[in-house]
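Re: the pair you flagged

First of the two:
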Amino acid sequence: MRAVAIDRGALLGACGLLYALASPIYAEDYPSKPIRILVPFVPGGATDILARLVGQNLTTAWGQQVVIDNRPGANGILAADMTAKATPDGHTLLFVAIGHAINPLLQKNLPYDTQRDFTPVSLAAVLPLMVTVHPSVPANTVKELIALAQKKSLNYASGGVGSSQHLATALFASMANIELVHIPYKGGNQGLLDTVGGQVSMMISTILSLTPHIKSGRLRGLAITTSKRNAAWPDMPTVAEAALPGYQSIAWYGMVGPRGLPPPVLKKLSGEVARIINSKAIRENLTAQGADPVGNTPAEFGAFITVETNRYKKVVRDAGVTTE
């Protein structure tokens, strides 16, 4: 049998042409089966809350079931690795938090490349954080909390090494020149429950997850972590106002997919997520709870992730954040 030489360039070109011709039909049919949104933390935290909010509305809009799959572990690395290895057809997605951008600064041997192996879809929301303590902690202001920490050992909860809670508290301790004992959990909600239960002294976490516990009196809110006061809590000072000029830290949440999502599918998905986040009812609901709804384009979210990674290089170094 005579061997036939294959022109690899021509073959790739033909495949590309077939893909281009098929893409509009594929986008029109998407989603063709249930969508799975991986959440890298346990249920109940801000990442999970926003993922479920988006998932429920995608189900309503497209009539296709959206399943939230909680896969906690290694500050999101487990779920991220599963997403990076998934078929890039838009049916496996990942809801990420700030740890997604920070993990490359903390881990030398990630099983994926954060910039290369994911397709940004949309930034959903940016959330201020709040400094809170259990009511048994004798501190009613940030200055009193710092003074207390200078006299006795205090511990704090976070959703894991490199999480927004961890980074915010590490920066707080560094600027206040105090030592705090870090207790990382596999998700912010687990740490929050132990703080509410009094097993942990304090926690800096999102307004979205803390608000019910502060209003019920199970936690005491001391300050907001953003540079300006929050409209939902106008009487609460910022950390910068209260004790540490220049202090600022936020949390953010968004959706990504595997590398290589077909452009028409990405456009449809990103547009729908942005529409959901900016719908009147959801926008008003999130704003009332202190969140800042976003809903932007894939390019904008990708640029945002890069900026966050670069911005936190200094924070990780100065605050001594390590993979404990």
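Second of the two:
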Amino acid sequence: MEGVVDAVMRDLLTGIGGYDRCVTEFIRVSQTVLPARVFYRRCPELSAGGKTPSGIPVYIQLLGSHPDLLARNAQVAYRLGAPGIDLNFGCPAKTVNKSQGGASLLKNPPLIYEICSAVRSALPRTVPLTAKIRLGFEDDQAFEAVVAAVVNAGVDELTVHARTRRQGYRPPAHWQRLADVSRHIGIPMIANGELWSPSDVIRCASVSGCHHFMLARGALCRPDLGLATRALLTNTSHDSMLWEHVHPFLQAFLERNALRYEAHHALNPLKQWLVYLAHYFPQAAALFAQVKRIRQFDDMLAALR
């Protein structure tokens, strides 16, 4: 969720509740061991024990194709206080894939094994190592081989976005493909893809056989999705958030990001979030139409108020 699920958004969403863990936007590893400031910039929670203000752990996500470099950067993240490391083998972006990152590695299960094995060996066994994949690159023929590579390398949990890179984000997500391996891989499999509502999660559980779920775009569309999903899974009550509950978060998101970046750079993440919110709240679509051409921070703040 590059560009919008930053530390401020993680704080807002985990403050609402329902989540057990967060993962940072990816940190690209290509040529060197990165300095500490890069990790702090992506994950300022490192200064607070690697947790959001609500106490939810935040894993550092690394993306790259060089086993030794990824392992050494994972060690840096661990020493800085990361409670866990996540490896990105699912990013579908063309610029990432052209440089042998993200989903492009799904074409090479042996390299995925080398990466996971190197990172696992570089960390204390008590430090969780997780990975995220897709069903494949062009197709899902190598799905089982990729899963085996990850599991055999000692990864603790595996998240699967139930589409190939070619399928991108086009519905449907092929949850049934997860069922082929979820019940016997020996580690938890976390389902991802087309989880927009608590009922979607229930259906995904039934189809995929998974008991753990990653909420991404759905969480941006509906900020209380984690809490509402947990309520349904545990048969407890939950009053859905209304627009008047969500609206104050917009101003907080804008103002707090303005403290982290130059003020005008805080506008685009806000606009991105409004586009997501519009899928669930028609008021967000109307607000986006009003503010989409605003270029100045003070004008945006006045519009939100």
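DSSP finds 14 helices and eight strands in the chain.

-B.
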